[in-house]
């Protein structure tokens, strides 16, 4: 008999069976089991009141814990079909080419650029925070001619500025962030899609931080490609990214001269995996995140039950309650225009004289609450507070205000 191996020791000899009998030889295992892997997993509880991920409700955690089924089983395809319908509702679109990427919001971001743009084509990117910076780099890496519109964090672009740039650069794609979480800004969308279409340009919009929290209407606002992430107002764990392509986008995408630079993100394969290409059989492309899709399906079900407009108004109500409380504490909101504030992620100017890292560390240590500082160009400018989805309620807003008040009292201001 082959002796059983225990996790407590490493055998000096390895034993393997062959058709000629048992062969014994020196073990090839030289690295012992790491001590950390022999201890049970420990994960602390924290209130995730930063810009995401957010705390996940028990109902969605339970959905993600359902028994695994095969990613090519008919039941899985049925769940994927449900997800597609849920995304169409959340995006307010009738686009057939609607699906969820196997990955975070960055996956959908790269999928959109890689599939729409070919090397040498002109791309226009609106940069008023980190997400425009990321898209510009992605497009540059795959060989596009990248042009940018630039504002400092908190700034937004007028339709006149956008049209002037479209006329000048004649891009095939224009990127704009709807919910710029690094600055706490929600960007006006009305008329932008119409202007893009006037110049035969596709409009790509990032709604990772805004979907479900702020009004966005893909079809009515003539958005050609829209994507989001699962981990913010949608309540689900990180790891899936809804995306949708208009017919205009599909025509550009499926009439390329060159193949997309990524095989994994190639929509000619993904459209089949999601049953969007009209073919009777779905062919294996990659193993989708089965448990992640269970959770995403449940999160979209919760949104459908609540109602999209109710979700928008609820996020606005809680945000306004938080904004007033912050101002009562003497803090300054970073986005001055109330109509441009992102309801899901509030930014406050770093209080004068305080070390923002010390404030965040104190709040984490004494209140188990995560807030964050700025990101990308907004580092050192803001503190970011996120109340979205499951976390979006007055009790949590009150907890945020109490933690900030305590930190402002206990953390010492500099002498300067």
UniProtKB/TrEMBL annotation:
Sites of N6-(pyridoxal phosphate)lysine modification: 232
Pfam families linked to this entry: Aminotran_5
A Gene Ontology cellular-component term: peroxisome
Domain Aminotransferase class V: 47-392
Catalytic activity: L-serine + pyruvate = 3-hydroxypyruvate + L-alanine; glyoxylate + L-alanine = glycine + pyruvate
Similarity section: Belongs to the class-V pyridoxal-phosphate-dependent aminotransferase family.
Originating gene: LOC107718120
Biological process, per Gene Ontology: glycine biosynthetic process, by transamination of glyoxylate
Record-listed substrate binding positions: 384
SUPFAM superfamilies: PLP-dependent transferases
Cofactor: pyridoxal 5'-phosphate
Name of protein: Alanine--glyoxylate aminotransferase
GO MF term list: alanine-glyoxylate transaminase activity; L-serine-pyruvate transaminase activity
EC id: 2.6.1.44, 2.6.1.51
Keywords: Aminotransferase, Pyridoxal phosphate, Transferase
KW Transferase (keyword) present: yes
Quaternary data: Homodimer.
